[in-house]
Amino acid sequence: MRFLRQSLAVAAKDLRSELRSKEALNASLAFALVILLLFSFAFDPTAETTREISGGLLWLVFAFAGTLMLNRSFARELPNDCLDALVASPVPASALFLGKALANLVLLLAVELVSLPVFGVFYNVRWLPHLLPLLGVLVLATWGLAVIGTMFSALTVNLRLRELMLPVLVYPMIIPALMAAMQLTTVLLAGEPVTGDNWLWVRLLVAFDLIFTALALALVETVLLG
Amino acid sequence: MRRTILYALAALGALWLVRNLYVILLALPDEVAQGAIYRIFFFHLPAWFTCFAAFFAAGVASIFYLVRKSPAYDAFAVAAVEVGVAFTAIGLVTGMVWARIIWGIWWTWDPRLTWAFITLLVYLGYLMLRHAIDEAAERAKNSAVLCIFAFASVVITYKAIDWWRTQHPGAVLSFRTGGGTIDPAMESMIFQNWFALLLVALALVLIRMRQERLERELDALRRRAHAL
Prior knowledge:
The structure holds 2 protein chains of 2 kinds. By secondary structure, chain A is mostly helical. Chain A contains 9 helices and no strands. Chain A has helices spanning 2-21, 23-42, 48-52, 54-75, 82-88, 93-123, 131-156, 162-189, 197-225. By secondary structure, chain B is mainly α. Chain B has helices at residues 2-27, 41-68, 71-102, 111-132, 136-163, 174-177, 184-227. The interface between A and B is medium-sized, with 23 and 21 residues.
Protein backbone atom coordinates (compact mmCIF):
# COMPACT_ATOMS: atom_id res chain seq x y z
CA MET A 1 0.00 0.00 0.00
CA ARG A 2 2.75 2.37 1.08
CA PHE A 3 4.73 1.33 -2.01
CA LEU A 4 1.78 2.17 -4.28
CA ARG A 5 1.25 5.52 -2.59
CA GLN A 6 4.90 6.39 -3.10
CA SER A 7 4.74 5.35 -6.77
CA LEU A 8 1.64 7.45 -7.32
CA ALA A 9 3.32 10.43 -5.66
CA VAL A 10 6.26 10.15 -8.06
CA ALA A 11 3.89 9.73 -11.01
CA ALA A 12 1.88 12.79 -9.94
CA LYS A 13 5.08 14.81 -9.58
CA ASP A 14 6.22 13.81 -13.07
CA LEU A 15 2.85 14.53 -14.64
CA ARG A 16 2.59 17.89 -12.91
CA SER A 17 6.03 19.02 -14.02
CA GLU A 18 5.36 17.80 -17.55
CA LEU A 19 1.96 19.47 -17.78
CA ARG A 20 3.46 22.76 -16.60
CA SER A 21 6.39 22.79 -19.00
CA LYS A 22 4.89 20.59 -21.78
CA GLU A 23 8.37 20.30 -23.29
CA ALA A 24 8.32 16.57 -24.05
CA LEU A 25 4.57 16.41 -24.66
CA ASN A 26 4.58 19.11 -27.34
CA ALA A 27 7.69 17.77 -29.04
CA SER A 28 6.34 14.23 -29.05
CA LEU A 29 2.94 15.25 -30.38
CA ALA A 30 4.40 17.47 -33.11
CA PHE A 31 6.75 14.67 -34.07
CA ALA A 32 3.87 12.17 -34.29
CA LEU A 33 1.99 14.48 -36.65
CA VAL A 34 5.07 15.06 -38.80
CA ILE A 35 5.61 11.31 -39.20
CA LEU A 36 1.94 10.80 -40.09
CA LEU A 37 2.46 13.43 -42.81
CA LEU A 38 5.71 11.82 -44.01
CA PHE A 39 4.04 8.42 -44.33
CA SER A 40 1.57 9.86 -46.84
CA PHE A 41 4.50 10.45 -49.23
CA ALA A 42 5.91 6.96 -48.74
CA PHE A 43 2.87 5.27 -50.31
CA ASP A 44 -0.57 6.07 -51.66
CA PRO A 45 -2.62 6.96 -48.56
CA THR A 46 -5.96 6.39 -50.30
CA ALA A 47 -5.24 2.87 -51.50
CA GLU A 48 -7.04 -0.11 -50.02
CA THR A 49 -3.68 -1.69 -49.18
CA THR A 50 -3.04 1.10 -46.69
CA ARG A 51 -5.76 -0.29 -44.49
CA GLU A 52 -3.91 -3.60 -44.31
CA ILE A 53 -0.81 -1.93 -42.90
CA SER A 54 -2.60 0.70 -40.84
CA GLY A 55 -1.79 -1.00 -37.52
CA GLY A 56 1.87 -1.13 -38.39
CA LEU A 57 1.94 2.54 -39.39
CA LEU A 58 0.18 3.65 -36.27
CA TRP A 59 2.56 1.81 -33.97
CA LEU A 60 5.62 3.09 -35.81
CA VAL A 61 4.34 6.60 -35.15
CA PHE A 62 3.76 5.77 -31.48
CA ALA A 63 7.17 4.14 -31.09
CA PHE A 64 9.01 7.06 -32.73
CA ALA A 65 7.11 9.71 -30.81
CA GLY A 66 7.38 7.63 -27.64
CA THR A 67 11.18 7.67 -27.44
CA LEU A 68 11.12 11.48 -27.48
CA MET A 69 8.98 11.33 -24.37
CA LEU A 70 10.98 8.54 -22.71
CA ASN A 71 14.26 10.36 -23.30
CA ARG A 72 13.08 13.09 -20.97
CA SER A 73 11.85 10.76 -18.24
CA PHE A 74 15.09 10.67 -16.25
CA ALA A 75 16.92 13.44 -18.10
CA ARG A 76 14.33 15.82 -16.66
CA GLU A 77 15.77 15.17 -13.20
CA LEU A 78 19.35 16.08 -14.09
CA PRO A 79 19.22 19.90 -13.69
CA ASN A 80 19.66 20.97 -10.05
CA ASP A 81 20.67 17.36 -9.19
CA CYS A 82 17.02 16.39 -8.73
CA LEU A 83 17.87 12.74 -9.48
CA ASP A 84 20.25 12.58 -6.52
CA ALA A 85 17.55 14.07 -4.30
CA LEU A 86 15.00 11.53 -5.56
CA VAL A 87 17.38 8.62 -4.98
CA ALA A 88 18.22 9.95 -1.51
CA SER A 89 14.54 10.32 -0.60
CA PRO A 90 12.90 7.55 1.49
CA VAL A 91 11.19 6.20 -1.65
CA PRO A 92 12.60 2.81 -2.79
CA ALA A 93 14.10 2.82 -6.28
CA SER A 94 11.45 0.39 -7.51
CA ALA A 95 8.65 2.75 -6.41
CA LEU A 96 10.47 5.59 -8.14
CA PHE A 97 10.68 3.50 -11.28
CA LEU A 98 7.04 2.42 -11.12
CA GLY A 99 5.92 6.02 -10.66
CA LYS A 100 7.95 7.19 -13.61
CA ALA A 101 6.69 4.32 -15.77
CA LEU A 102 3.08 5.19 -14.82
CA ALA A 103 3.63 8.86 -15.69
CA ASN A 104 5.15 7.81 -19.02
CA LEU A 105 2.19 5.52 -19.66
CA VAL A 106 -0.25 8.41 -19.16
CA LEU A 107 1.77 10.80 -21.32
CA LEU A 108 2.28 8.26 -24.10
CA LEU A 109 -1.41 7.38 -24.06
CA ALA A 110 -2.24 11.09 -24.33
CA VAL A 111 -0.08 11.41 -27.45
CA GLU A 112 -1.59 8.24 -28.88
CA LEU A 113 -5.17 9.32 -28.24
CA VAL A 114 -4.54 12.64 -29.99
CA SER A 115 -2.80 11.04 -32.99
CA LEU A 116 -5.45 8.35 -33.40
CA PRO A 117 -8.27 10.64 -34.68
CA VAL A 118 -5.80 12.52 -36.88
CA PHE A 119 -4.65 9.22 -38.31
CA GLY A 120 -8.29 8.19 -38.84
CA VAL A 121 -9.04 11.38 -40.74
CA PHE A 122 -5.88 11.45 -42.86
CA TYR A 123 -5.90 7.79 -43.80
CA ASN A 124 -9.65 7.19 -43.87
CA VAL A 125 -9.53 4.55 -41.16
CA ARG A 126 -12.62 4.00 -39.00
CA TRP A 127 -11.39 3.44 -35.47
CA LEU A 128 -14.30 4.76 -33.35
CA PRO A 129 -16.47 1.61 -33.47
CA HIS A 130 -13.58 -0.47 -32.12
CA LEU A 131 -12.50 2.00 -29.48
CA LEU A 132 -12.82 -0.27 -26.43
CA PRO A 133 -10.73 -3.25 -27.61
CA LEU A 134 -8.36 -0.78 -29.25
CA LEU A 135 -7.90 0.97 -25.91
CA GLY A 136 -7.03 -2.37 -24.35
CA VAL A 137 -4.33 -2.96 -26.96
CA LEU A 138 -3.08 0.61 -26.53
CA VAL A 139 -2.76 0.28 -22.77
CA LEU A 140 -1.09 -3.15 -22.85
CA ALA A 141 1.45 -2.32 -25.54
CA THR A 142 2.13 1.18 -24.25
CA TRP A 143 2.83 -0.23 -20.79
CA GLY A 144 5.45 -2.49 -22.37
CA LEU A 145 6.96 0.49 -24.16
CA ALA A 146 6.84 2.58 -20.98
CA VAL A 147 8.53 -0.10 -18.84
CA ILE A 148 11.36 -0.82 -21.27
CA GLY A 149 11.70 2.86 -22.14
CA THR A 150 11.79 4.04 -18.52
CA MET A 151 14.28 1.34 -17.58
CA PHE A 152 16.64 2.14 -20.44
CA SER A 153 16.13 5.84 -19.82
CA ALA A 154 17.51 5.20 -16.32
CA LEU A 155 20.38 3.16 -17.81
CA THR A 156 21.40 5.91 -20.22
CA VAL A 157 20.64 9.00 -18.14
CA ASN A 158 24.27 9.79 -17.35
CA LEU A 159 25.49 9.42 -20.93
CA ARG A 160 26.52 12.29 -23.13
CA LEU A 161 24.88 10.49 -26.07
CA ARG A 162 21.69 9.41 -24.28
CA GLU A 163 19.34 10.83 -26.94
CA LEU A 164 21.12 8.67 -29.50
CA MET A 165 21.52 5.57 -27.36
CA LEU A 166 17.94 5.22 -26.15
CA PRO A 167 16.28 4.41 -29.51
CA VAL A 168 19.10 1.99 -30.42
CA LEU A 169 18.51 0.07 -27.20
CA VAL A 170 14.73 0.37 -26.91
CA TYR A 171 13.53 -0.54 -30.40
CA PRO A 172 15.02 -4.04 -30.69
CA MET A 173 13.86 -4.87 -27.15
CA ILE A 174 10.22 -3.84 -27.63
CA ILE A 175 9.77 -5.69 -30.93
CA PRO A 176 7.64 -8.50 -29.39
CA ALA A 177 5.18 -5.98 -27.91
CA LEU A 178 5.23 -3.84 -31.03
CA MET A 179 4.69 -6.86 -33.25
CA ALA A 180 1.66 -7.99 -31.22
CA ALA A 181 0.24 -4.47 -31.08
CA MET A 182 0.59 -3.98 -34.83
CA GLN A 183 -1.10 -7.29 -35.53
CA LEU A 184 -3.99 -6.67 -33.15
CA THR A 185 -4.50 -3.07 -34.27
CA THR A 186 -4.63 -4.10 -37.91
CA VAL A 187 -7.19 -6.79 -37.10
CA LEU A 188 -9.32 -4.37 -35.07
CA LEU A 189 -9.18 -1.58 -37.64
CA ALA A 190 -10.28 -4.03 -40.32
CA GLY A 191 -13.40 -4.56 -38.23
CA GLU A 192 -12.65 -8.18 -37.37
CA PRO A 193 -13.13 -9.54 -33.85
CA VAL A 194 -10.12 -10.74 -31.87
CA THR A 195 -10.52 -14.51 -31.87
CA GLY A 196 -8.58 -17.75 -32.15
CA ASP A 197 -5.04 -17.13 -33.35
CA ASN A 198 -5.16 -13.49 -32.41
CA TRP A 199 -5.59 -14.29 -28.72
CA LEU A 200 -2.03 -15.53 -28.92
CA TRP A 201 -0.93 -11.94 -29.55
CA VAL A 202 -2.91 -10.72 -26.55
CA ARG A 203 -1.23 -13.37 -24.42
CA LEU A 204 2.15 -12.35 -25.82
CA LEU A 205 1.46 -8.72 -24.84
CA VAL A 206 0.43 -9.65 -21.30
CA ALA A 207 3.43 -11.98 -20.88
CA PHE A 208 5.79 -9.30 -22.22
CA ASP A 209 4.40 -6.73 -19.78
CA LEU A 210 4.60 -9.07 -16.79
CA ILE A 211 8.11 -10.39 -17.49
CA PHE A 212 9.72 -7.05 -18.18
CA THR A 213 7.90 -5.23 -15.37
CA ALA A 214 9.16 -7.83 -12.90
CA LEU A 215 12.68 -7.74 -14.35
CA ALA A 216 12.79 -3.94 -14.29
CA LEU A 217 11.46 -3.69 -10.73
CA ALA A 218 14.07 -6.20 -9.60
CA LEU A 219 17.01 -4.53 -11.35
CA VAL A 220 16.25 -0.81 -11.13
CA GLU A 221 17.68 -0.57 -7.63
CA THR A 222 21.16 -1.55 -8.88
CA VAL A 223 20.88 0.86 -11.81
CA LEU A 224 19.97 3.91 -9.73
CA LEU A 225 21.92 3.19 -6.56
CA GLY A 226 24.86 1.12 -7.85
CA MET B 1 50.98 -21.33 -17.29
CA ARG B 2 47.69 -19.62 -18.18
CA ARG B 3 49.17 -18.76 -21.55
CA THR B 4 50.07 -22.39 -22.18
CA ILE B 5 46.54 -23.52 -21.38
CA LEU B 6 45.17 -20.84 -23.68
CA TYR B 7 47.38 -21.84 -26.59
CA ALA B 8 46.66 -25.51 -25.97
CA LEU B 9 42.92 -24.83 -26.12
CA ALA B 10 43.22 -22.81 -29.31
CA ALA B 11 45.47 -25.41 -30.95
CA LEU B 12 43.16 -28.26 -29.95
CA GLY B 13 40.16 -26.38 -31.37
CA ALA B 14 42.00 -25.61 -34.62
CA LEU B 15 43.22 -29.19 -35.07
CA TRP B 16 39.76 -30.55 -34.37
CA LEU B 17 38.27 -28.14 -36.91
CA VAL B 18 40.74 -29.32 -39.57
CA ARG B 19 39.92 -32.94 -38.85
CA ASN B 20 36.18 -32.09 -38.97
CA LEU B 21 36.61 -30.33 -42.29
CA TYR B 22 38.19 -33.49 -43.69
CA VAL B 23 35.22 -35.61 -42.56
CA ILE B 24 32.62 -33.04 -43.66
CA LEU B 25 34.09 -32.43 -47.10
CA LEU B 26 35.48 -35.84 -48.02
CA ALA B 27 34.04 -38.61 -45.86
CA LEU B 28 30.34 -37.74 -45.59
CA PRO B 29 28.19 -38.22 -48.71
CA ASP B 30 26.05 -35.49 -50.31
CA GLU B 31 22.57 -35.04 -48.88
CA VAL B 32 19.77 -36.53 -51.01
CA ALA B 33 17.64 -33.42 -51.49
CA GLN B 34 20.13 -30.58 -51.23
CA GLY B 35 23.37 -31.90 -52.67
CA ALA B 36 26.69 -30.49 -51.55
CA ILE B 37 25.42 -27.23 -50.02
CA TYR B 38 24.00 -28.99 -46.96
CA ARG B 39 27.56 -29.09 -45.61
CA ILE B 40 27.29 -25.44 -44.61
CA PHE B 41 24.86 -26.71 -41.99
CA PHE B 42 27.80 -28.20 -40.04
CA PHE B 43 28.88 -24.62 -39.38
CA HIS B 44 25.49 -22.89 -39.38
CA LEU B 45 23.97 -24.78 -36.49
CA PRO B 46 27.12 -25.05 -34.32
CA ALA B 47 27.71 -21.32 -34.82
CA TRP B 48 24.22 -20.59 -33.48
CA PHE B 49 24.71 -22.96 -30.55
CA THR B 50 28.03 -21.31 -29.78
CA CYS B 51 26.49 -17.85 -29.85
CA PHE B 52 23.58 -18.96 -27.64
CA ALA B 53 26.06 -20.48 -25.20
CA ALA B 54 28.17 -17.30 -25.22
CA PHE B 55 25.15 -15.05 -24.60
CA PHE B 56 23.91 -17.36 -21.86
CA ALA B 57 27.33 -17.31 -20.20
CA ALA B 58 27.41 -13.51 -20.53
CA GLY B 59 23.98 -13.29 -18.87
CA VAL B 60 25.07 -15.50 -15.97
CA ALA B 61 28.32 -13.54 -15.59
CA SER B 62 26.27 -10.31 -15.53
CA ILE B 63 24.12 -11.60 -12.70
CA PHE B 64 27.28 -12.62 -10.83
CA TYR B 65 28.72 -9.17 -11.45
CA LEU B 66 25.66 -7.48 -9.96
CA VAL B 67 25.90 -9.72 -6.89
CA ARG B 68 29.67 -9.75 -6.35
CA LYS B 69 30.81 -6.55 -8.15
CA SER B 70 34.06 -8.16 -9.24
CA PRO B 71 35.47 -6.69 -12.49
CA ALA B 72 36.46 -10.18 -13.66
CA TYR B 73 32.77 -11.05 -14.22
CA ASP B 74 32.30 -7.89 -16.24
CA ALA B 75 35.37 -8.74 -18.33
CA PHE B 76 33.98 -12.21 -18.95
CA ALA B 77 30.56 -10.80 -19.93
CA VAL B 78 31.93 -8.38 -22.49
CA ALA B 79 34.31 -11.02 -23.89
CA ALA B 80 31.49 -13.53 -24.23
CA VAL B 81 29.17 -11.01 -25.88
CA GLU B 82 31.82 -9.94 -28.39
CA VAL B 83 32.57 -13.55 -29.31
CA GLY B 84 28.82 -14.26 -29.36
CA VAL B 85 28.21 -11.39 -31.78
CA ALA B 86 30.93 -12.76 -34.07
CA PHE B 87 29.27 -16.18 -34.05
CA THR B 88 25.84 -14.62 -34.62
CA ALA B 89 27.28 -13.00 -37.72
CA ILE B 90 28.70 -16.37 -38.82
CA GLY B 91 25.29 -17.98 -38.25
CA LEU B 92 23.52 -15.28 -40.27
CA VAL B 93 26.01 -15.32 -43.14
CA THR B 94 26.13 -19.12 -43.45
CA GLY B 95 22.33 -19.14 -43.37
CA MET B 96 22.20 -16.51 -46.09
CA VAL B 97 24.61 -18.41 -48.33
CA TRP B 98 22.48 -21.53 -47.90
CA ALA B 99 19.28 -19.57 -48.60
CA ARG B 100 20.78 -18.10 -51.79
CA ILE B 101 21.40 -21.62 -53.13
CA ILE B 102 18.26 -23.39 -51.91
CA TRP B 103 15.63 -20.62 -51.85
CA GLY B 104 17.22 -18.42 -54.50
CA ILE B 105 17.22 -15.36 -52.21
CA TRP B 106 19.67 -14.05 -49.63
CA TRP B 107 17.10 -13.03 -47.06
CA THR B 108 13.44 -13.47 -46.26
CA TRP B 109 11.50 -11.83 -43.42
CA ASP B 110 10.80 -15.16 -41.80
CA PRO B 111 10.26 -14.85 -38.00
CA ARG B 112 13.23 -17.07 -37.29
CA LEU B 113 15.55 -15.03 -39.46
CA THR B 114 14.08 -11.81 -38.14
CA TRP B 115 14.63 -12.83 -34.53
CA ALA B 116 18.20 -13.85 -35.22
CA PHE B 117 18.74 -10.40 -36.69
CA ILE B 118 17.05 -8.74 -33.69
CA THR B 119 19.39 -10.62 -31.34
CA LEU B 120 22.36 -9.30 -33.27
CA LEU B 121 21.02 -5.73 -32.99
CA VAL B 122 20.29 -6.10 -29.27
CA TYR B 123 23.83 -7.21 -28.51
CA LEU B 124 25.34 -4.59 -30.81
CA GLY B 125 23.36 -2.13 -28.67
CA TYR B 126 25.04 -3.64 -25.60
CA LEU B 127 28.48 -3.08 -27.13
CA MET B 128 27.52 0.49 -28.10
CA LEU B 129 26.32 1.21 -24.56
CA ARG B 130 29.69 0.05 -23.23
CA HIS B 131 31.51 2.41 -25.56
CA ALA B 132 29.32 5.30 -24.46
CA ILE B 133 30.09 5.04 -20.72
CA ASP B 134 33.54 6.19 -19.60
CA GLU B 135 33.46 5.34 -15.92
CA ALA B 136 34.40 1.66 -15.43
CA ALA B 137 32.11 0.73 -12.50
CA GLU B 138 29.12 2.52 -14.03
CA ARG B 139 29.80 0.84 -17.38
CA ALA B 140 30.02 -2.60 -15.81
CA LYS B 141 26.83 -2.14 -13.78
CA ASN B 142 24.66 -0.68 -16.54
CA SER B 143 25.81 -3.10 -19.21
CA ALA B 144 25.24 -6.03 -16.83
CA VAL B 145 21.61 -4.95 -16.43
CA LEU B 146 21.22 -4.57 -20.18
CA CYS B 147 22.80 -7.99 -20.72
CA ILE B 148 20.13 -9.61 -18.54
CA PHE B 149 17.37 -7.88 -20.53
CA ALA B 150 19.03 -8.80 -23.81
CA PHE B 151 18.95 -12.50 -23.02
CA ALA B 152 15.16 -12.46 -23.60
CA SER B 153 15.81 -12.10 -27.33
CA VAL B 154 18.11 -15.13 -27.27
CA VAL B 155 15.38 -17.24 -25.67
CA ILE B 156 12.90 -16.13 -28.32
CA THR B 157 15.37 -16.80 -31.14
CA TYR B 158 16.08 -20.28 -29.80
CA LYS B 159 12.36 -21.09 -29.45
CA ALA B 160 11.40 -19.34 -32.71
CA ILE B 161 12.21 -22.55 -34.58
CA ASP B 162 9.33 -24.26 -32.67
CA TRP B 163 6.89 -21.36 -32.33
CA TRP B 164 6.75 -20.33 -35.96
CA ARG B 165 6.60 -23.09 -38.55
CA THR B 166 7.59 -21.09 -41.58
CA GLN B 167 10.15 -21.09 -44.35
CA HIS B 168 13.17 -21.74 -42.17
CA PRO B 169 13.69 -25.51 -41.73
CA GLY B 170 12.49 -26.91 -38.40
CA ALA B 171 14.56 -28.54 -35.71
CA VAL B 172 16.50 -31.62 -36.89
CA LEU B 173 18.60 -32.69 -33.92
CA SER B 174 17.16 -35.67 -32.10
CA PHE B 175 17.09 -34.03 -28.65
CA ARG B 176 14.49 -31.62 -30.02
CA THR B 177 12.59 -33.84 -32.44
CA GLY B 178 12.78 -37.21 -30.68
CA GLY B 179 14.97 -38.77 -33.36
CA GLY B 180 14.59 -40.16 -36.87
CA THR B 181 15.13 -36.88 -38.73
CA ILE B 182 18.88 -36.99 -39.22
CA ASP B 183 21.53 -39.56 -40.04
CA PRO B 184 23.50 -40.43 -36.83
CA ALA B 185 26.86 -39.88 -38.59
CA MET B 186 25.79 -36.38 -39.62
CA GLU B 187 24.35 -35.57 -36.22
CA SER B 188 27.51 -36.65 -34.43
CA MET B 189 29.49 -34.46 -36.83
CA ILE B 190 27.35 -31.45 -35.92
CA PHE B 191 28.12 -31.95 -32.25
CA GLN B 192 31.81 -32.53 -32.91
CA ASN B 193 32.02 -29.35 -34.91
CA TRP B 194 30.14 -27.52 -32.20
CA PHE B 195 32.64 -28.60 -29.57
CA ALA B 196 35.50 -27.54 -31.83
CA LEU B 197 33.90 -24.12 -32.29
CA LEU B 198 33.25 -23.90 -28.55
CA LEU B 199 36.96 -24.47 -27.92
CA VAL B 200 37.83 -21.71 -30.37
CA ALA B 201 35.24 -19.44 -28.76
CA LEU B 202 36.60 -20.21 -25.29
CA ALA B 203 40.14 -19.35 -26.40
CA LEU B 204 38.86 -16.06 -27.89
CA VAL B 205 36.96 -15.22 -24.69
CA LEU B 206 40.07 -15.85 -22.58
CA ILE B 207 42.20 -13.65 -24.85
CA ARG B 208 39.61 -10.88 -24.70
CA MET B 209 39.38 -11.17 -20.90
CA ARG B 210 43.15 -10.78 -20.68
CA GLN B 211 42.88 -7.59 -22.76
CA GLU B 212 40.24 -6.23 -20.40
CA ARG B 213 42.44 -6.99 -17.42
CA LEU B 214 45.46 -5.30 -19.00
CA GLU B 215 43.31 -2.31 -19.89
CA ARG B 216 42.20 -2.03 -16.27
CA GLU B 217 45.80 -2.16 -15.09
CA LEU B 218 46.79 0.49 -17.64
CA ASP B 219 43.94 2.69 -16.47
CA ALA B 220 45.03 2.36 -12.86
CA LEU B 221 48.63 3.23 -13.79
CA ARG B 222 47.48 6.23 -15.80
CA ARG B 223 45.39 7.46 -12.91
CA ARG B 224 48.35 7.08 -10.57
CA ALA B 225 50.56 9.01 -12.99
CA HIS B 226 47.95 11.79 -13.10
CA ALA B 227 47.85 11.91 -9.32
CA LEU B 228 51.60 12.44 -9.23
